[in-house]
Amino acid sequence: ISCGNHQQEPLKDSSALSDSLIKNVQTAPVVSEHISDVIKLNGKIEADENKQAKVFSLVSGRITSLKVELGDYVHKGQVLAVLKSTEVAGFTNDLSMAESNVTLAKKVMETNKDLYDGKLVTEQDYLNAKISYNKALSELNRVKEVTSITGGKSSTYTITAPLSGFIIEKNITNTSEVRSDNNTNLFAIADLSGVWVMANVYEADMDNIHLGDLVKVNTLTNASKEYSGKIDKIYNVLDPATRTMKVRISMNNPGIVLKPEMFATITVNVKGNDEKLVIPSQAIIMDNSKNYVVV
After folding, report:
1. What is the pLDDT of residue 75?
2. Cα–Cα distance between 105 and 187 in angstroms, integer?
3. Which residues of the chain have pLDDT under 70?
4. What are phi and psi of 205, to 5 degrees?
5. What is the model's pLDDT at position 151?
6. Is residue 231 within 8 Å of residue 247, measured between CB atoms?
7. Which residues contact 32 (CB under 8 A, 6 or more apart)?
8. Interatomic CA distance for residues 241 and 18, integer angstroms
9. Dihedral angle sign, alpha carbons of residues 186, 195, 51, 240
């Protein structure tokens, strides 16, 4: 047989997979795409600094009536607290005296004008009376400005809300003593219709974070709920205690579901500049600690 001249029959084309298996197997082409990555950051919800105000007392005194509590919603101009103040009583007394001095100086000026017209006093006497009246008028205007700034009447000083929002800080109680030189605010009010999400970025991820990057925000309150936003501010300084850089995501807050001091997880979608061959992650088969694909 070996000496004979026999031609080998050609192999028939056949698929490595059966037709029934091919029908049930999903295939996908290998494509070239920009590589994207996901970075997860930790952060918390904070009130928008542009929509909040800290309330201080402009005078010293004792709180006699406290109208609000922490977490209350207040309207602009609403009374927050009332205090009794000797300073306000002094301003009221100054206003009364200034008004009396203006009345007296005006009367003296008018009298000197009549005497000057009758040639009974010199022109200098009339001018001195006119100058005294102008000084008294100027002092009255000053006292009125001070009174309008403090907003007090008699010995009562009223603290009102400068904007509408929620009381997020309250540092006084009923009968508290208040000093005008105290640098601690009495209240902090914030409009929570818009909030900031402040995220911490570690040094290894700083080069991959950019302005305008799209993010997803999740909170512990409702882990399945995602809030979409984008990075609109990068603070290019590191916190020496945590060695992290902060980034800010401004978000609308309908229904006030995001509250200050809530913890948040921020997922940043980072898109690279390099193109590489990619396949679906479901196509990777791991066997014996190695990855394989079926072609």
Report:
1. 95
2. 44
3. 1-2, 4-17, 149-154, 271-273
4. -105, 0
5. 63
6. yes
7. 275, 276, 277, 278
8. 63
9. positive
